[in-house]
Design brief:
Elements (H helix, E strand, L loop, with lengths): L2 H12 L11 H7 L5 H15 L4 H18 L2 H17 L3 H17 L3 H17 L3 H18 L2 H17 L3 H15 L5 H17 L3 H18 L2 H17 L3 H18 L2 H18 L2 H73 L3 H73 L5 H32 L8 E4 H11 L1 H6 L3 E4 L6 E4 L1 H17 L6 E8 L3 E8 L6 H8 L20 H12 L3 E6 L5 E8 L1 H6 L3 H8 L1
Parallel strand pairs: 2-4
Antiparallel strand pairs: 1-3, 4-5, 5-7, 6-7
Helix pairs in contact: 3-4, 3-5, 4-5, 5-6, 5-7, 6-7, 6-16, 7-8, 7-9, 8-9, 9-10, 9-11, 10-11, 11-12, 11-13, 12-13, 13-14, 13-15, 14-15, 15-16, 16-17, 17-18, 18-23, 19-21, 21-23
InterPro entries: HATPase_C_sf (IPR036890), HATPase_dom (IPR003594), His_kinase_dom (IPR005467), HisK_dim/P_dom (IPR003661), HisK_dim/P_sf (IPR036097), Sig_transdc_His_kin-like_C (IPR004358), TPR-like_helical_dom_sf (IPR011990), TPR_rpt (IPR019734)
Catalytic activity: ATP + protein L-histidine = ADP + protein N-phospho-L-histidine
GO molecular function: kinase activity
């Protein structure tokens, strides 16, 4: 090793590694890195990744990947665990929680195998952060306390401070404000000797949260301002963004509106430039409050709309990520349980076999000396056979239990999928419009809106209410169809009358886009199906035709019949669909969350098409689609006719009704 590299490692060993305390100079490490090889290079790569992972994630990720590859080549378990820890933390900062869990869990297993308590303590903080994202604060606090205990055993001050800050943060989420204050102050006292501005900044931010929750605005401002100054000194923009909206909120509560406005507008610029969506959402929320207090209705409405849009997007993503992470953790725990069970079985069987072998050897030797022991050997052998039979019986029981566990796991997945669909619909299509209506009504009742301004917004509110009503009706129908005991009641009715009623209900949508409707159906079109289900089908197909039509287009409706079926068709001149989109819509795997926006930015969840497919199938019919991008869409619905239902010629339809 060259002398500069040797001197550098002497410097590193003089100071214990942890978090951000006693950070090595990254420029110095980069200067000697090209000359380093083997384990020396592996150590430098890991130190660089740890120092940069909060400030330059892409660069830290690059160094971590090289460290992981080099550790694998050298067979260095501890170096690999450190590289995987950094990769897991970077994925956590990027919001990819499932990958973060996988890398952190693997790194923890390697640390335990190598009895590295310091590395295990660091990874307890990674795993605790994932429990924090699951909103399981009690479990998160337990993980961070384990990390603190392990770090205390090996005397690693930085990991102790990091663990204490995380414990304090989680106590603020459980309203344990006094406990949060106590742990944060302890972190500051320990950090007096480490000189880490980042960790002290974190402690001050947590204390600011506590003071704000206790309505002590002056103290909260002082803590946030101190935290912000330290974050800017360190150049950690993600942490700076986390402090900005908190300080702006404190200014707003203290009636310092000008300071709050200046700080929050800067926060918008910083968050948009760095794609910090969560902090950006909170900043828009506080700006809406600020402009509402100032009486600037237009700006308040703009920031309220941006908050609702961002919050809606973040909530949907968070729900999906939490569900994926929960499933991953469940599968990991299930695998661990199965491994422990198999291990116990093998140990039990090995013990029994070893015992049997010893008895056989003993009595074989004794048989040469004492013939009477031959009888004893026979009895013992019989006992062994009985024990093996018992083992086989136990093994079969275990296999049955494993099958039952797999069945329960599949049922849990189906329940989670159903719950996720409902949450997606309620969160995406109901919460946003209702919150916007409430916001405008609250401002009107509070006197912040003039009647003329309220009248201008009334059209938007009416459109939101219509959207909520349509989605709620679809949701109720879909929920009923998923319940056990859902019955289909086919009867004769006039399909044209159902179509005309639906056209009347959807008249505002057609009128808004100035669409021309041509209804060329026969005077009376009788079908044999469940009228309630077909009304939902007709309304959703006509609504989609309006949704994806361009302004001043036309929509044509007509019907045909043969001896067995009635064919009802709706043709529009809208944006059309590709073959891949048609196949996705008609497939069983079509997802509720993949619906496209309409030509006038109309939102949807895809539930209407799911209902259409389901109810047509339950009525013994069939759905088909003809479309090309930019050339409109033609949707055909085939339903049993009166004649075919009476003559028993629609056997397929009746079989599907029974199903």
């Amino acid at each position: 090793m060259s002398r500069p590299i040797l001197l550098f490692f002497v410097f590193l060993l003089a100071f214990p590694r942890f978090g951000f305390s006693q950070e090595p100079n990254t420029d110095s490490i980069k200067a000697v890195l090209p000359q380093a090889k083997g384990k020396e290079r592996l150590h430098l790569l890991n130190e660089l990744a740890t120092a940069l992972r909060e400030r330059s994630q892409n660069e830290a990720f690059f160094y971590s990947l090289e460290a992981d590859s080099l550790a694998e080549k050298l067979g260095d378990g501890l170096g690999k665990s450190r590289a995987l820890e950094n990769i897991g933390w970077i994925y956590y900062r990027r919001g990819q929680w499932q990958k973060s869990f996988e890398y952190s869990q693997k790194a923890y297993e390697i640390a335990i195998q190598n009895d590295d308590r310091l590395q295990a303590a660091r990874l307890m903080n990674n795993l605790g952060a994932l429990y924090y994202e699951q909103q399981d604060y009690a479990m998160a606090i337990g993980q961070f306390k384990k990390g603190y205990e392990l770090a205390s055993q090996v005397g690693d001050l930085g990991t102790q401070i990091r663990s204490l800050n995380n414990i304090a943060l989680n106590f603020t989420m459980t309203e344990g404000l006094d406990s949060a204050l106590s742990y944060a102050r302890l972190a500051i006292r320990l950090n007096e000797n480490s000189g880490s501005p980042y960790l002290t900044s974190f402690s001050h931010r947590v204390i600011g949260d506590v003071y704000l929750a206790k309505n002590n605005y002056d103290s909260a401002e002082a803590m946030y301002e101190s935290s912000l100054e330290m974050a800017r000194t360190q150049g950690v923009k993600s942490f700076e963004a986390g402090v900005l909206h908190r300080l702006g909120h404190a200014y707003l509560l203290a009636d310092k509106r000008d300071e709050a406005e200046q700080l929050l507008l800067y926060s918008v610029e910083l968050c948009e430039a760095n794609n910090f969506l969560d902090e950006l959402s909170k900043t828009h929320f506080y700006l809406a409050e600020l402009y509402e207090e100032k009486g600037n209705v237009q700006k308040a409405f703009f920031h309220q709309s941006r908050f609702l849009e961002l919050n809606d997007e973040l909530q949907n993503k968070t729900n999906r990520d939490r569900l994926a992470l929960l499933q991953n953790m469940f599968q990991s725990n299930l695998r661990e349980s199965e491994l422990e069970l198999l291990k116990a079985q093998n140990e039990n069987q090995a013990y029994r076999l070893e015992t049997s072998r010893r008895y056989i050897i003993f009595f074989a030797i004794a048989a040469a000396l004492v013939g009477v022991l031959v009888v004893r050997m026979y009895i013992l052998n019989k006992s062994v056979r009985s024990s093996n039979t018992d083992l086989l019986v136990q093994q079969r029981k275990i296999e049955e239990q494993n099958q039952e566990l797999e069945s329960q796991s599949e049922q849990l997945k189906e329940m989670n999928d159903t719950k996720n669909k409902l949450f997606s619909i309620l969160g995406h299509d109901l919460r946003g419009p209702i919150a916007q209506v409430k916001s405008v009504v609250d401002m009107f009742l509070a006197g912040h809106l003039e009647k003329e301004e309220f009248d201008e917004l009334l059209h938007v509110l009416n459109k939101d209410i219509d959207s909520v009503n349509f989605t709620l009706n679809n949701t109720l129908k879909w929920s009923m169809s998923q319940m056990e005991g859902f019955h289909v009641n086919p009867a004769r009715f006039d399909l044209r009358e159902v179509v005309e009623n639906s056209l009347q209900l959807l008249q505002p949508s057609f009128k808004e886009k100035r669409l021309t409707i041509f209804n060329h159906m026969e005077t009376k079109v009788e079908v044999f199906a469940d009228q309630d289900l077909i009304e939902v089908v007709v309304r959703n197909i006509l609504n989609n035709a309006a949704k994806f039509s361009n302004f001043e287009d036309s929509v044509t409706i007509f019907s045909e019949r043969d001896e067995q079926w009635v064919y009802w068709c709706v043709q529009d001149q809208g944006v059309g669909m590709s073959e891949e989109q048609i196949s996705l819509i008609l497939s069983d795997s079509y997802s509720l969350t993949r619906s496209r926006q309409g030509t006038n930015r109309e939102k949807g969840s895809g539930l209407g098409l799911q209902l259409t497919k389901e109810f047509i199938r339950k009525s013994g019919g069939k759905l088909s689609i003809e479309s090309h991008p930019g050339h409109g869409t033609k949707i055909w619905v085939r339903l049993p006719s009166i004649e075919s239902s009476l003559n028993g010629e629609a056997a397929i339809g009746k079989e599907e009704l029974k199903a």
